[in-house]
Design goal:
By secondary structure, this protein is an alpha+beta fold. The protein starts with a strand and ends with a strand. The radius of gyration is 14 Å and the shape is globular. It has a single domain, classed as Sulfate adenylyltransferase, CATH 3.10.400. It is built from 3 helices and 5 strands.
Length: 113
C-alpha cells in the first residue's frame, strides 16, 4: 500500500474534514486506488517510524489543475474553511516551494471505514 504524507494537515485528516489534497506530483494515482494517510513518509530519521492517520482513503479523482484556480469550496474541502483562495495558495506555495501559476494534481478522496 502506498503512503501519502499529510504533515501540514494531520488534524484535518484525523477529523475527516479534508477530502481534497493538492500535490506537486502524484500523477500515477487512479480512481479507486487505496492509500494510507501518514504524518510523514519521507525523510524519516533512524529509528523513526511511519505514523498512520486513521484508516486508508480511496481516490475518487485525480486531475491536473492550475493552483491559482482554487475556489472557496475547495479551500473548505482542503480542510481550511477560514482561508480565502488567495490565502490558501500563499500557504501552499510557502510549504511546497512553488509559484502560484503552476499546475498541481487535485486529488479528491473518501475515507474507507
Amino acid at each position: 500500500m502506498r503512503y501519502m504524507s499529510f504533515s501540514a494537515t494531520t488534524e484535518q485528516v484525523r477529523n475527516r474534514t479534508k477530502t481534497v489534497t493538492r500535490r506537486q506530483g502524484w500523477l500515477f494515482l487512479n480512481r479507486g486506488d487505496i492509500v494510507q494517510p501518514v504524518v510523514k513518509a519521507q525523510g524519516l530519521k533512524k529509528g523513526e517510524r511511519v505514523v498512520k492517520i486513521g484508516g486508508p482513503i480511496r481516490i475518487k479523482s485525480n486531475r491536473r489543475v492550475g493552483l491559482d484556480r482554487i475556489t472557496k469550496r475547495d479551500c473548505i474541502k482542503e480542510g481550511f474553511p477560514n482561508h480565502s483562495p488567495r490565502e490558501f495558495v500563499r500557504m501552499y506555495c510557502r510549504l511546497n516551494g512553488c509559484t502560484e501559476w503552476g499546475n498541481v494534481s487535485r486529488i479528491e478522496f473518501e475515507y474507507v471505514d
